[in-house]
Amino acid sequence: MEPILFETERMTFRRFTPDDREAVSVFLMDPEVMYAWEHGFSEEEVTGWMERNSTRYDRYGYGWLYAEDKETSGNIGAIGLLYTGDIAGEDGWELGYIVNKRFWGKGYAAEGARGCIEHAFRAIGTDRVFSQMRTSNAASRAVAERIGMEYVTTYDRLYHGETLPYHVYVMKKTEDRRSGRKRTGAPDA
Q1: How many domains does the chain fold into?
Q2: Which domain holds residue 68?
Q3: CATH number of the domain that 35 lies in?
Q4: Structural domain contains residue 1
Q5: β-bridge mates for residue 166, sequence order
Q6: In a domain, 44, yes or no
Q7: pLDDT tens for residues 28-44?
Q8: Radius of gyration for the alpha carbons in the chain, expressed in angstroms and rounded
Q9: Distances 7 to 86, 111, 116, 171 between C-alpha atoms, Å
Q10: Where is the N-acetyltransferase domain positioned along the sequence (predicted)?
Q11: Using an 8 Å Cβ cutoff, are 127 and 93 in contact?
C-alpha cells in the first residue's frame, strides 16, 4: 500500500496503484461522472489513464491521487496535482478533481481541492496552482470559486479533435503582510 501523502479533515490522499483499478473504473467508466469528457471511459481508456498517471508520478512526483474517506475507507475519486505545460499557454501545477457519484454534494471536491493546494504550496513549493475546466462544467467552476480561486481567462483547447472553450482559474500563495508569513489566498472554511 502506498503511504499517505497528506490528509484533510475527512480524507487521506495517496498515489494510485494497479490494485486500485476497480475503484478507478467505477468513476472513470460512469458517463454521468465523466460528463465533462462527454463519455464514460472504456477499459482501454482506463488503462491509458492509469499508465499516464504512473508516468506523472515518475516524472513529477505527483498526479491524480487516490482520495479515501477516513470513516468508510471508500474511494471518493481522484483529486490531484498534475504538472502541465498547456494551461492557456503557461506551464504549472494544475488541480483536478473527479468525484465518485455517491459522494457528490457533500463538499468532498472542495475539501480535497483545498488540501491539494495547501500541499502544493507546502511540499512542492509552488507559488500558484491552476485549475481549468470546460466552460459548460458549472460544478467544477463552482468548486474553484468556492475555495477562492480567481478567474484568469477563457481559451480554446483541442480535445478529441474538437476545439472547446475552457475557463482557467488560479490560486496564488500570498504573503501575510502583518506577519511576513506566506499563506494561501483560500478563504477560511
Answers
A1: 1
A2: 6-184
A3: 3.40.630.30
A4: no
A5: 134, 155
A6: yes
A7: 999 999 988 888 999 99
A8: 16
A9: 28, 10, 9, 20
A10: 11-176
A11: no
